[in-house]
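Continuing the series of single-chain predictions for the mutant panel. This is the parent chain; the variants come on the following pages.
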Amino acid sequence: MDQTDLTHLPTEYIERLTELLGDEAAAFLAHYAAPPDAALRANPLKIEPDELFPRLEMAFEPIPWSPDGRLIAASDVSPGLHPYHAAGLYYIQEPAAQAVVEILDPQPGERILDLAAAPGGKSTHIAGKMGNRGLLIANEIHPKRVWDLTRNLERWGAGNVMIANETPERLAAALPGFFDRVLVDAPCSGEGMFRKMPEAVRDWSPEFVEGCAVRQRSILGDAAEMVRPGGRLCYSTCTFTQEENEHVVRGFLAGRPDFALVTPGWRPGFSRGLGPEFNREGATTPVRLWPHRVPGEGHFIALFERSGDGVAPDDFRRRNSTARDRLLPHWEAFVDENLAPGFAIPKDRLHLVKSYLYALPEGAPELAGLNYIRPGLWLGSFKKDRFEPAHSFAMALRPDDVRRTLELKGAQVSAYLRREAIRSEGEDGWTLATLEGRFPIGWGKRVRGLVKNHYPMGLRFQ
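Parent structure:
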């Protein structure tokens, strides 16, 4: 569209932004004439960024605040349809959103909560930085969006994640002072999504903005209860209003004297928060990313630290396996027949829910009565007299973990992703399909030279 064509935007939105930005308003509004910025973020659990990006048929530019991310400058392929995406080697995430987890700065071995996690961009980012050490609880209250979160985390291949479908209030009651770091990527009016989501424009109104601010204050209050003394709380939105950003920060600090605002490490492209207390040199400030100044759709990020010093309590730890002895022999037979010698998951981390077997993360808390979609890595299901492995288990393995692999080559790759059987001579049994012999993409089961395809029906390429 022509940069002067702003008829699709609410008039009151334009007026508010003009008042907010003054001389920069014209440059901000002109950014709507350009297409949305696209970017990828590499999965360090599977491949390093410097190895991944040269393999892709795309031109990239660096993102100043995201060492694992790259801005797509040009591409002849859809990144969502590339086999590397199906193998979980990268996540498609706009550039500004990648700043949030860099500011949160998760560390291996910590306990971390992503409180409003769908569709999973920030949870996968956190999991990548944790390196499968520690515990990540990814929570999403929406009953449909939580399944988008689940699919994205399963493709990522992290083994230290629990996925919950709970309210912030119930989690706060169950896990007070439990986490080293908590992320609240708050539901907001979504002004940063106007270029990408027409429905965000349709839903916007001043009343909607105020309603979002009320909900954000409540969520942030619940999140604060779950941060241990000395721990950190990160609040972010993809909107530009002060009501949902600086005003929420001020209100939170006024009501929680045990928290203080922290200025994150400064990166090129970061701007200070709005308001005299934030906008002077040397002042502690939240961060804004403006889409007319930097790549991406814009973001607001505030980092807090809770006063005191201490570690997360240990009295939440789950101590007992719930896997019944009558079913465990089927799992053990699967391991003996199909996984490499020496592969083992400690028995006290095996957890059974109906017929579904999970591997609990270390230090997973006992959360009886709360709604979990995945209490750990889904290993598979018991069916009559056998165990059948789950796709999520395949995505968390390495080729060295299994007895049989199938390196997909050429046309076999697209055939596998269409869920077609693959001709392959070799030993019968469960077989890990891979790209380049290195990157797992799913299960197959070889019987007399034909590998039956077990790629999930809902993921298959058309």
